[in-house]
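QA checklist item 7 of 12: single-chain prediction sanity check.
[x] sequence parsed
[x] length recorded as 222
[x] structure emitted
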Amino acid sequence: MKMKLLKPSWVSHNGKPIFSVDIHPDGTKFATGGQGEDSGKVMIWNMAPVLREEDEKNENIPKMLCQMDNHLACVNCVRWSNNGLYLASGGDDKLVMVWKRAAFIGPSTVFGSSSKLANVEQWRCVNILRNHTGDVMDVAWSPHDVWLASCSVDNTIVIWNARKFPEMVTCLRGHTGLVKGLTWDPVGKYIASQADDHSLRVWRTMDWQMEANITKPFSEVH
């Protein structure tokens, strides 16, 4: 199988670092998260100009769909919900933001930029989730979007009720180092977390207790 690598030069945060990318479940768009001018930046891009050269050259086909500068500091992760209705982002401002597409009122230019950077789609922050006391490193939606998990430099994993934002279900404690990443099993019975304490922990969603603490493979990791 041959793999094709595409690196569109126009996907940029004005030269600032991009730390996360996620493709929408329907494949028509993708989101990036990273550094903004003096804040964090989340951007949503059209996939068509990436996939087809003729679409890339067609000036009538927009490349950027929306730019959001609500995060107060760098954005570390962006993740689409499984149903594609929401986008979650987490940043160095200790916040998780949940975005939803709003009814289109008309093109709105991005504040402080030339009119060429008009938002084609309107994505609004519908919830701000506040509980972490440190930078948010990763977010992950459970299967069927029942829960949203976030992990942080504060060594914790917070489980949010994705059907009743901003309700918090629980806070998973036990890691002794910053938690870097999260993943759910395909059924939603377990969530796994990896941390700077050289461990990977598996938690049960039935009672939110720890099922396993795996350290041996990571003991030599620096």
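[x] summary fact logged: The mean pLDDT is 91.
[ ] second reviewer sign-off
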